[in-house]
Design brief:
heterodimer, A: 513 residues, PmbA/TldD fold, 11 helices, 20% helix, 38% strand, globular, B: 438 residues, 2 domains, six-stranded antiparallel beta sheet, five-stranded mixed beta barrel
Chain lengths: 513, 438
């Protein structure tokens, strides 16, 4: 923990947020917890954490004893497994269990926070007193009974990951390796990285809600290294979703393998584009990274209530052409960024950030919603019980527009197409944002001519929105395993977009004069 | 030795061996972390937490795996460890997966690294508030300030590692950081923003809070009216703070894992002159009060000072025991400690005067590098260098090239080491760098 914080403070610029494909930056059998008293039988989550309604009420009462506008207890148990296949064998596994409860008190814009990994009453009461110290008012009336809300069904599974053994995953990893190796004699090494996890969350709120959510997640990555003569190139692909084991069908894995092999081999022919400003075509799918960085982060309402975002004074204003509509939507079944409820216990749903070119709504947590006099958009998320929630994206995408991909390519005299990405970052106040293009294409005289690789693209959020001059009708969400980082907290996200033309961006390239 | 942790770690080893493990390494850790954030005249966030964890590495039947948990209840621990052993046995055997040989534990230095300041655990709420208020007073003292957050982050960390083949060792450290993040109104809807934080294991070595806030404010003020600079091939001066992360990128694939997996442009470089004479990088785990100082590494290997690059010649890579065996390389250490980058004699001002014109980079924005080829492209913010001085602020630009090539064109290094990072680098000067802008 301390190392992480030191390095974070030492190296990450102010007001910035990032999105990455982990690993590509130059980076259960659980029984019920200690029984305090008889668990409520109708709620398996209570049982899971070894607490009951009176215990939760007692802790909530202590937590709000010095006043609160909002308060919550966030119980979480997560279990993650990963496996590594390198050089033909699976000889490394990792598993991690994290369990604890985070306790939060909010008064106005002030937050008191503590957590404990010891779910006994004395330990939870001590943490509650620590968190409550931020407040100095009188006791508020805490609920004696919490009302369970209906559980969501966006990512229901029949077999939890805890019940899927290593012996079931090994053949799948071997299959991926074999498929990849067979594609081309230049392929020297194939590595396969498997990750799965189950997360159980129970949130009790000051207004008497009890929200439970079982959140599965899986991600498989294949990395291909090929050699031709003296030259070596590496490429990869991955797929991720809130899914169960049966989702990893041969068809789905084959698509991933083909992508990884294609992306690797094309690099032997790929070059850097010329440096400077030019039109940029964003291919449908993963190019949603543009939305995540150029507008999504700037629309998170914590930055706006503080006035630190470039979008702070733009609600209701025209920011793009009428065919541009940008949405953040959590209730998309089984997507990596999907959520039934956010981490404050609010129903997660659809927020239109830009509608027909007009800036409509920020992404709100409870703190910002109260300040703006609005309803929270269900955007309060946290990495784990160790952190207080803040406004975050879920699945961010642009809806279809009136053009076609072919029209867009034909309209460009000299520019590039961006296809695959490793990471992006944004400066919230200045609006400058970047994304790193791993694979792409040169466009000359309306035709795709040659492959390009390894260029950073930089632009300014509001300026880029204005410069979206064409939007095609082929929108899709990317299936890759994106992770968003903000203020030291990582959460899974999804992103998508149709083929789009941005009339002018700055492309990192070579041969500047 | 931290007695409770030692007992828990030894207990975990016993359970794992009883469950069928041949060899086990167990680490028990505890930490306390306190955050105070203060914004625009009021305390905004207080977070006070203690955390614990156990991690075990299991070797069984020629197989290996590793596991972590925060749930240390005795009955839970038992099933956790038993399952860890079961998972291990379900994997494939790998002759290279072996516990660290005891001879690598030998020669552990016993010098006092001075990583613990007993005063950190005693920092009071009043002291944290006083730092916040001192920072806030300076950070908000400008008419263009929209928002300024003062932050104080302090904590203590301790852990004990024991192995079934004779290793035992403990770590203890404290930290205290404070500083500010400031946003100023700029042209139109734009805001200028920057931050400056200082930290150390020891409170007494920190500069005064008001001075830190003033540095943060001056940094942001210098960003006002930033514009996109030109597309040009010119000299790049990287300031010492930004240089730390560039050195980190350079060294990213300088390890046995990347080399063995065929994903490193460092593969054939050991013993060769690969970079400019001006480049020297020493991995030094024995710096007193260093952020990454240690007596032993993650595998228990005794800490020693290791040259990575000397005058442009590659001397050593980061080699752990597993990938070292696979690649036929002798183990050094698989995990970096502090990195000292060789310094020159000139101040930043003298370097800029010597350069005359070019781009002075103060921070990066996104970008990445391909570990296999070394090709990189990074977003930058900084200033134009005009007549040997810091000129107009620029941003929304990229710098693009190849890391090996870039560091072969390292022309000068400064004498101004940035102290608030485990990578201790001075300002760096590179010739012939491709910038893309207008």
């Amino acid at each position: 923990m301390s190392i992480k914080r030191r390095e974070f403070l030492g190296t990450v610029a102010a007001g910035s947020a990032i999105v990455t494909m982990p690993g590509f930056l130059s980076g259960c059998g659980i029984q019920s917890a200690t029984a305090l008293s008889t668990a409520t039988p109708e709620n398996p989550f209570m049982d899971w954490f070894g607490v009951d309604q009176p215990t939760v009420a007692r802790v909530m009462s202590e937590l709000t004893s010095r006043g609160a506008d909002t308060a919550d207890l966030y119980f979480q148990h997560s279990r993650n497994n990963s496996l590594v296949l390198e050089d033909g064998i699976v000889s490394n596994a990792n598993s991690g269990i994290q369990q604890g409860v985070g306790l939060r008190v909010v008064i106005g814009e002030q937050t008191g926070y503590a957590f404990t990994e010891d779910l006994t009453l004395p330990s939870m009461l001590a943490a509650a007193r620590t968190a409550s110290a931020i407040a100095s008012g009188g006791r508020v009336v805490a609920p004696q009974q919490f009302n369970p809300l209906a559980t969501g069904n966006l990512y229901t599974t029949t077999v939890p990951w805890a019940d899927v053994g290593v012996e079931q995953k090994l053949p799948v990893m071997k299959y991926i390796e074999k498929q990849a190796k067979s594609k081309d004699p230049a392929i020297e090494k194939v590595a396969v990285y498997w990750a799965d996890g189950d997360e159980r969350v129970m949130i009790a709120t000051l207004d008497g809600k009890l929200v439970t959510d079982h959140r599965p997640m899986a991600r498989v990555t294949v990395v291909v290294t090929a050699r031709k003569g003296e030259e070596t190139q590496t490429g990869y692909s991955n797929i991720a979703a809130r899914e169960e084991f049966s989702w990893f069908s041969e068809d789905r894995l084959s698509v991933m393998v083909d992508e990884a092999v294609d992306r690797t081999l094309i690099q032997f022919e790929a070059r850097r584009p010329p440096a400077g400003e030019m039109p940029v075509i964003l291919a449908a799918g993963a190019s949603g990274i543009l939305l995540h960085e150029a507008i999504g982060h700037g629309m998170e309402a914590d930055f706006n209530r503080k006035g630190t975002s470039i979008y702070s004074d733009m609600i209701g204003k025209k920011v793009a052409e009428p065919f541009v509509t940008v949405v953040d939507q959590a209730d998309i079944p089984r997507e990596r960024g999907a959520l039934n409820y956010d981490d404050e216990g609010n129903k997660a749903g659809r927020t239109v950030m830009v509608e027909n070119g007009i800036l409509k709504s920020y992404l709100h947590d409870q703190i910002s919603a109260k300040q703006y006099g609005l309803k929270a958009t269900g955007s309060g998320r946290r990495e784990s019980y160790q952190y207080a929630p803040m406004p975050r994206m879920s699945c961010t995408f642009m809806e279809d527009g009136p053009h076609t991909k072919e029209e867009i390519i034909a309209s460009v005299d000299r520019g590039i197409i961006c296809e695959t990405y490793t990471n992006g970052q944004v400066q919230i106040g200045a609006g400058d944002y970047t994304f790193y293009v791993k694979n792409g294409w040169l466009v000359e005289n309306g035709k795709v001519t040659a492959p390009i690789k390894d260029v950073n693209i930089i632009g300014n959020g509001p300026e880029s929105l204005k410069r979206i001059t064409m939007v095609a009708n082929d929108a899709r969400l990317d299936t890759g395993g994106w992770t968003c980082g903000k203020n030291g907290q990582s959460v899974p996200v999804s992103q998508g977009i149709p083929t789009v033309l941005v009339s002018n961006m700055t492309v990192g390239g070579e041969n500047a004069s | 030795m931290r007695a409770d942790e030692l007992k828990q770690a030894e207990h975990a080893i016993q359970i794992a061996k009883a469950a069928g493990a041949d060899d086990v390494v167990a680490t028990v850790s505890q930490s306390r972390d306190v955050t105070f954030e203060y914004r625009d005249g009021a305390l905004e966030k207080v977070k006070d937490t203690t955390s614990q964890g156990l991690s075990i590495q299991v070797y069984a039947d020629g197989r290996f795996s590793n596991h972590q948990t925060t749930d240390l209840k005795p009955q839970r621990l038992k099933s956790f460890v038993a399952e860890a052993v079961a998972i291990t046995k379900a994997l494939e055997p790998d002759e290279f997966r072996q516990i660290t040989p005891p001879e690598l534990f030998e020669g552990r230095p016993d010098i006092d690294l001075d990583l613990v300041d007993p005063n950190v655990a005693k920092i009071s709420r009043e002291q944290r508030l006083a730092w916040c208020e001192a920072i806030d007073a300076i950070a908000t003292d400008h008419q263009k300030v929209i928002s300024a957050t003062a932050g104080v982050y302090d904590g203590t960390y301790g852990s004990t590692t024991v192995s079934s083949n004779g290793f035992s060792g403990s770590r203890e450290s404290t930290y205290c950081w404070y500083g500010s993040e400031i946003t100023l109104r700029d042209q139109g809807d734009k805001r200028a923003e920057d931050s400056f934080y200082v930290g150390s294991p020891h409170i007494e070595t920190l500069p005064d809070a008001a001075t830190v806030a003033d540095t943060a404010l001056q940094r942001v003020l210098s960003r006002l009216n930033s514009e996109k600079g030109p597309t040009v091939k010119t000299t790049m001066v990287v300031d010492s703070r930004a240089a730390s992360s560039l050195i980190g990128r350079l060294l990213g694939p300088a390890n046995a894992r990347r080399v063995q997996q065929g994903q490193s442009y460092w593969s054939e470089l050991v013993g060769k002159k690969a970079f400019s004479d001006k480049l020297t990088i020493i991995d030094d785990p024995l710096i007193k009060r260093g952020f990454a100082s240690r007596h032993f590494d993650d595998e228990g290997i005794a800490a020693k000072v290791m040259p990575v690059v000397e005058s442009g010649v590659v001397k050593n890579l980061y080699v752990d025991t597993y990938y070292g065996r696979k690649a036929g390389l002798a183990p050094t250490t698989g995990s970096p400690s502090n990195r000292r980058v060789g310094t020159g004699s000139m101040s930043l001002q003298a370097l800029l005067a010597d350069v005359g014109s070019g781009v002075y980079v103060t921070s990066w924005l996104g970008g990445n590098a391909d570990n296999t080829t070394g090709d990189f492209s990074l977003g930058i913010r900084g200033h134009m260098i005009e007549n040997g001085q810091i000129g107009r602020p620029v941003g929304e630009m990229n710098v693009t090239g190849n890391l090996r090539d870039l560091f072969s064109r390292l022309e000068m290094t400064g004498n101004d080491v940035y102290p608030y990072s485990s990578t201790l680098s001075p300002s760096l000067v590179f010739s012939g760098v491709d910038f893309s802008g207008v």
